[in-house]
Amino acid sequence: MELFLNQVFSGLATGSIYAAVALAVVMIFLAIDHFNFAQGEMAMFSTFVCWALLDAGTPYWLAFILTIAFAFAFGVVIERVLFRPLHSAPVLSHIIAFLGLFFILNNGAGWIWDFTIKPMPSPFPEGSISGLISYHQIGMIGVVLVMLALLFVFFRFTSVGLAMRAAAQNPESARLCGISVGWMIALGWGMASAIGAVGGMLIAPVVFLEPNMMLGILLYGFAAAIVGGITNPAGAVAGGFMVGVLENLVGTYIPFVGSELKLTVALVLIVAVLMVKPSGLFGRTTVTRV
What residues form the membrane-spanning segments (predicted)? Predict the structure, then answer.
């Protein structure tokens, strides 16, 4: 039982990061109807910025806030400079742009900070509660839950949040109401980048900081978004926690899987959900008049 509880709590901790990445992926998907394959690299680059601030002597939580601000501005600039001109371009053009951004950020981070593995400090104390869950894992869950609560309040009760929802759901009607859809999309990019940066800063002390640190995590984030529902942000968050727990339980209790094949679980989940329920467990099925 102790092993089971340990795996569940650990899965919830890593699942909180998958939930953050999945939410960032869903926000951009709802804005431009495409997956952002560079979402993980944007988070990784912002995490390196946080590490540089910490290395310069900046207190952790100040560096954390400054990095979120940087990530937000970074996301807005990327949308305005790179993806706004591609708004009406074919899908393949978007995919090439995403892949180009992926390699630019990956190699850029290696060129600036080199490709060696760097330890990322944790703001939470060492140790654990009864050996079941560490204080850093508790902190990961707590920070992500607070962030999700703030996002819920923003989108539900603020005029800008309501305008962003309107722009994502019905751009034509939003324009008729005087909403600047283009800037709402840019704000969505900024928020998605900031959310991804939070996930990157929290997971870096666990996986260590290097340019390829987010590759597997992004795959799990995609799996979470698809399992929960790519059109449902709350469903994507639930999918993140589900994938995190399931990954740990499968890796522990199915002997031939182990830690080496846990990444395969994400791929199996993606394929299985797409076969059974393409819209995801909590997604909305879109009906189009032909």
Answer: 12-30, 60-83, 95-113, 133-155, 176-207, 213-230, 237-257, 263-283
- Residue 163: which domain range? 8-211
Is 50 domain-assigned?
yes
- Residue 78: half-sphere exposure toward Cβ, Cα within 13 Å: 27
Beta carbons of 231 and 285 less than 8 angstroms apart? no
pTM: 0.88
User: CA 205 to CA 238: how far, in whole Å?
Assistant: 24
Give me the phi and psi of 200, to 5 degrees please.
Answer: -65, -45
Chain-centroid distance of CA 102 in Å reads: 15
Distance CA 24, CA 46 (A): 14
Please give the structure tokens belonging to residue 279. 């819209």
Contact between residue 31 and residue 76 where contact means Cβ atoms under 8 Å apart? no
Whether 290 is covered by a domain: the verdict is no
* Mean pLDDT taken over the chain: 85
Helix 135-157, helix 159-169: angle, nearest 10: 80
Tokens of 124: 């939470």
Q: Is 76 a domain residue?
A: yes
Q: How confident is the model at residue 266 (pLDDT cuts 50, 70, 90)?
A: low
Number of domains in the chain: 1
Q: What is the DSSP string of 209-250?
A: B-TTTTHHHHHHHHHHHHHH-TT-HHHHHHHHHHHHHHHHHH
Q: Where are the alpha helices (DSSP H) in 33-59?
A: 39-55
The whole-angstrom distance between residue 51's C-alpha and the CA centroid of its chain comes to 19
CA 92 to each of CA 34, 87, 125, 257: distance values in angstroms, whole numbers, following the listed order: 10, 12, 47, 35
Question: What count of other Cβ atoms lies within 10 Å of the Cβ of residue 149?
Answer: 10
Q: Name the band, by pLDDT with cuts 50, 70 and 90, for residue 58.
A: very high
Residue 257 domain-assigned (yes or no)? no
Q: Is the pLDDT of residue 290 over 50?
A: no
